[in-house]
Design goal:
- By secondary structure, the chain is of the alpha+beta class.
- Helices cover 31% and strands 12% of the residues.
- The chain is built from ten helices and twelve strands.
- Strands 10-9-8-11 form a four-stranded mixed sheet. Strands 1-4-12 form a three-stranded antiparallel sheet, with helices on one face.
- Strand 6 and strand 7 form a beta hairpin.
Amino acid sequence: MVGGVQHVETQRNHVVRSATPDVDRDALVERFIAVRRRTEELAARLTAEDQMLQSLPATSPTKWHRAHTTWFFEENVLVPSGAPYVDERFRLLFNAHDDNVGPRQPRPRRALVSRPDAQAIAAYRQQIDSRVVERLRTARALDLARVARLVELGLAHEEQHQELILTDILHAFSLSPLKPAYAPSAIVEAMTETPMERSFQRFAGGVSEIGADAGGAFVFDNERPKHHVFLEPFELGTTLVTVGEALGFIADGGYRSPSLWLSDAYDWVQANAIESPTYLRVEGGRAVVFGLEGERVAHPAEPLLFMSWYEADAIARYLGARLPTEAEWEHAAHGVSHEGHFLGGAFHPHPPSGTGVMQMFGTGWEWTSSGYEAYPGYMPFPGALGESHGKFAANERVLRGGSLFTPPGHVRPTYRAFWPPETRIQASAIRLARNVSG
């Protein structure tokens, strides 16, 4: 994206966990191989021509994602230990945004990098994979602990790009007159479940702990430090806003009603002639949507996905509610089951089931009303590894919960994604919140 607008790649956050020499070497090698293989499996569905597509300045070609995630391991794991570059020109081609590393290919022009070709990128990945595995297998214990933290960060970073491979190719395919399916075997049958009526669950508020602990399991740096917030009593909708509710908003002239929109948002709607959420059009009163499985008629009861924060805010207001703050969302999410389909599943929204607040994980990234900023006491990492979080904490809105494209290891109550309010190409969703009086 241009003008400071960022991708998840630019929110490449950093692992924070206590240093320990107790690293399971074999398990780490196995995980490294599995994550790297998964990226190639996602790309294998695409032709070499598909892998060059870049439909927006905000998106990147699949080939670039494959190369950039490989460059990360070369630049941060191998070169500091004295290993030579496979090709030093790759620093220019595949550096995403690390100014401390040096110049880079402008993001909007990544599709112009036709060489090295897709086959050469595969060879590059194989070379770096072999070197990293050798590094992990031969490192001494204390050095292994340090390298393991970098590898763990690199794997989390690559999993974020696996999600981007899907969202970016979805947008590119949506612009093709042929409307190709990325995963035709994942064709979604119309949801026949009886629509579940939404209720609102009340939360008493008070002092709540937000954020992640310093030690233990993997976390990104923007999830820390844990801190206290005070919450007024509030209610959350038990289900996500549905396609049927979006159809009602459209039919009632919601996109032409300035009273439902913030000023900047309504200017954006008019300037861009927005009439419906991304990948949704209305035909004969029905919603036709486009997804990785191709084009289909959406069931009115399934969750609405792919809309901007501007639209989410307006639709929530139309439904007599508001968006939750990120602190409210996290407070409610602790203890909720991590349901969803995730990467490798059927790539379709998860219907509500059970009781209480549902669909919080793995269906759609849920927009919150909170602007993205560092937590109190946050300290960025020094040097290049600290660039991708702190300097982007402006003009963004926080999303929570993960989508149907998100790897399961990235789904937890404390995980924070952030995007500019006009972003429409991520699998975002709407959860309603209400104030409690008295």
